[in-house]
């Protein structure tokens, strides 16, 4: 399996910020710029959402501006506030809140976007102008060649048989934060805002972790045989597992998981606002939502999306799994994130 990622160096980003995006002068074609995740996400989103949109709207061209993460997308919008060059931005919901608070996003209203009525309630958050476009969930990664039978519980991470064979990306990455909240419930916590049990569980696990900073990621560590267990995101885990020739598996444990929400926002002062609105409406439509769920196993936010049973079973959105999901308000998590990161530095990483 080959994993491609686009990394923007500081110098490259600086150059991109200094130069305006080049737009065609032909009046008959409008060009919008979409800032979203790069690498394998871009490959698949371009193929089943962006390209079909352009075929359906021949007068609109979409330029995909790949970003390494949500925070960098926010930084780009901030830098361009006086003269925006981006039209549409994708980022996680906590970054969407920050962008809204800074006046960087226009609201998406039901009058302009009737499709909003079809979205799941969790696609919206108070005080956030961006709306959910994909749901993903934390997933247990494993090597089918060495972890037998296939794991069904998060507790396998604490099995002494796998000591020194575990790869998890630590906080402040959202994988580490999410794993803390999952472990908190797993070991008896009843409120994720009191994450002490999760911190203690991961502190106990820490001496048995091979790497808290797997490069390029935990999926690769398991695929190339460096590790046998890990934690990652289900969509990528499911896709990579299908490309790995049996070297990677992605499980949705019986205790449940938690959702991470990516949102789509309309940049305030977007150069091509009306064309950008057309793209956002399409990206939220049942057709686009179903296509991306089938292609990359992100759970759809549109409740009318017709997704095959096979694809749905690879997500946490199947009816039998929804009831086990940990309900997390990521805006609440943002309030104690610094405190949680400090606990990781003091109590977890020091024991590795």
TrEMBL record:
<protein>
    <submittedName>
        <fullName>Putative spermidine/putrescine transport system substrate-binding protein</fullName>
    </submittedName>
</protein>
<dbReference type="GO" id="GO:0030288">
    <property type="term" value="C:outer membrane-bounded periplasmic space"/>
</dbReference>
<keyword id="KW-0732">Signal</keyword>
<dbReference type="GO" id="GO:0015888">
    <property type="term" value="P:thiamine transport"/>
</dbReference>
<dbReference type="GO" id="GO:0030976">
    <property type="term" value="F:thiamine pyrophosphate binding"/>
</dbReference>
<dbReference type="InterPro" id="IPR006059">
    <property type="entry name" value="SBP"/>
</dbReference>
<dbReference type="GO" id="GO:0030975">
    <property type="term" value="F:thiamine binding"/>
</dbReference>
<dbReference type="Pfam" id="PF13416">
    <property type="entry name" value="SBP_bac_8"/>
</dbReference>
